[in-house]
Design brief:
By secondary structure, the chain is α+β, with helices and mostly antiparallel strands. The protein has 2 helices and 4 strands; from the N terminus they run E-H-H-E-E-E. Strands 1-4-3-2 form a 4-stranded antiparallel β-sheet, covered by helices on one side. The relative contact order is 0.26. The model has no long low-confidence stretch (mean pLDDT 87).
Length: 90
């Protein structure tokens, strides 16, 4: 937790799994491509990236999904994703 926490606006429709990787890479001060083993654990070891992406995409009829949050730990950060697609690191 190099800088003590961060918030990332993901209103542009980046896949949530990619937004998480980018947020952690930004906090670590490395390019997202460098967020890989052995120094960093792969995202798929802590959460299913495809399921995470699906949770934050509109339903097939275009309606948004219900409100809620997802929280998990990744690379030493507690990651919380809000229903508005905001990624918080702490």
């Amino acid at each position: 937790m190099a800088n003590g926490g961060d918030t990332v606006d993901t209103s542009i429709r980046t896949a949530m799994s990619q937004a998480v990787v980018e947020a952690v890479a930004n906090e670590e001060g490395v390019p997202p491509a460098e967020l890989c083993p052995p120094e960093y654990e792969p995202l798929h070891t802590v959460i299913n990236p495809e399921a995470l992406d699906t949770l934050f995409t509109p339903r097939s009829n275009g309606c948004p999904r219900p409100e809620g949050t997802v929280t998990f730990t990744y690379c030493g950060y507690d990651i919380t994703i809000e229903s508005d697609r905001t990624v918080h690191l702490s």
